């Protein structure tokens, strides 16, 4: 009798132990890490060239320089990775421009944005101001004239009041109400501007002989609108314009590099961030 009781008790103990082990087993710990073209994290993409990064994960600081922005009417919402900057009508974030960004001679700027069709005017995403000129040194914005299924992105770079880079108007398919990735670069070695949409090259422009850029009066920058839509305006060259507005959607993972990333690096960055890496 005692033997039977012992056997039953042992079986219960073994069953409980097996159940406990099963409950603690996590298959994900045995899965190989995500690898895209040999990269497992965005931190591995040109880390030596990253000069600024705003993750907007509940804060407004550049993680590279520790420069902290000042919010005006904005908040935070769910993003591609963690949280994102939540824009608003008449809302934006102004920051001092990190020193290494002011000194860019080549660059790549990347970001994620989720926006409705802009019906109230152009919508600035990121603008590195020129405090004495109408347009900023480097401006990304949605142009007027989109439709429910198409959008117009303008990637513009100025030096002083001379439009060296031209207006890189890019037609976008299905850009509204979903997360999209935008990248804009300039390579001083071949004077070439390039625009990417969701990791794919969609346009380029060569400005013969342009060479190294030299931003002017670039001490301020703004997220969520253009330099002349802030209060007060970030530039003495313009005040608020009736054809311009504000990002009322979300902006996330703004990165600036001091070189033109390759097409493969942009693609890897977009795919990793889309997976939260």
How would you sum up this structure, described in words?
Residues 1-17 form the signal peptide. It holds the Pfam family Laminin_G_3. Keywords: Signal. This is LamG domain-containing protein. One of its GO terms (molecular function) is hydrolase activity, hydrolyzing O-glycosyl compounds. The relative contact order is 0.22. The protein has three helices and 16 strands. Strands 1, 3, 4, 6, 11, 12, 13 and 16 form an eight-stranded antiparallel β-sheet that branches. The termini are far apart. It has a single domain, classed as Jelly Rolls, CATH 2.60.120.200. Helix content is 14%, strand content 33%. With 277 residues, it is of the alpha+beta class. The chain has helices spanning 2-24, 99-102, 263-274; strands at 50-54, 70-72, 75-78, 83-86, 92-96, 107-114, 122-128, 138-142, 150-157, 167-173, 180-187, 192-197, 200-206, 220-223, 244-245, 250-257.
Brief write-up:
This protein is α+β, with helices and mostly antiparallel strands.
Q: Report the order of strands and helices.
A: HEEEEEHEEEEEEEEEEEH
Number of strands: 16
Number of helices: 3
* Class per helix and strand makeup: alpha+beta
Rg from Cα = 24 Å
Low-confidence stretches: 1-22, 160-164
Shape: globular
CATH-defined fold name: Jelly Rolls
Straight-line N-to-C gap: 60 Å
Bin the strand percentage.
25-35%
CATH architecture: Sandwich
Helix content: 10-25%
Strand count, sense and closure of the main sheet? 8 strands, antiparallel
Structurally, how many domains make up the residues?
A: 1
CATH class category name: Mainly Beta
GO molecular function, one term: hydrolase activity, hydrolyzing O-glycosyl compounds
Keywords: Signal
Protein name: LamG domain-containing protein
InterPro entries: ConA-like_dom_sf
């Amino acid at each position: 009798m005692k033997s039977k009781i012992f056997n039953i008790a042992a079986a219960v103990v073994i069953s409980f132990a097996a159940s406990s082990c099963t409950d603690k087993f996590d298959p994900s710990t045995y899965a190989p890490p995500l690898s895209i073209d040999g990269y497992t994290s965005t931190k591995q993409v040109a880390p030596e060239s990253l000069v600024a990064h705003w993750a907007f994960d509940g804060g407004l600081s550049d993680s590279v320089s520790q420069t902290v922005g000042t919010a005006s009417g904005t908040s935070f919402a769910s993003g591609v990775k963690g949280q994102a900057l939540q824009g608003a009508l008449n809302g934006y974030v102004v920051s001092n421009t990190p020193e290494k960004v002011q000194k860019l001679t080549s660059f790549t700027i990347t970001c994620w944005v989720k926006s409705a069709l802009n019906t109230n005017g152009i919508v600035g995403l990121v603008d590195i101001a020129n405090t004495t000129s109408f347009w900023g040194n480097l401006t990304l914005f949605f142009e007027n004239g989109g439709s429910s299924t198409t959008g117009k992105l303008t990637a513009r770079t100025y030096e002083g009041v001379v439009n060296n880079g031209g207006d890189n108007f890019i037609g976008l398919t299905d850009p509204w109400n979903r997360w999209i990735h935008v990248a804009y670069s300039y390579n001083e070695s071949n004077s070439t501007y390039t625009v990417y949409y969701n990791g794919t090259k969609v346009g380029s422009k060569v400005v013969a002989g342009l060479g190294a850029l030299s931003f002017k009066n670039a001490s301020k920058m703004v997220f969520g609108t253009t330099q002349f839509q802030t209060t007060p305006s970030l530039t003495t060259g313009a005040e608020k314009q009736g054809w311009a507005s504000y990002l009322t959607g979300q902006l996330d993972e703004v990165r600036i590099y001091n070189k033109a990333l390759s097409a493969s690096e942009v693609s890897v960055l977009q795919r990793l961030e889309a997976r939260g890496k």
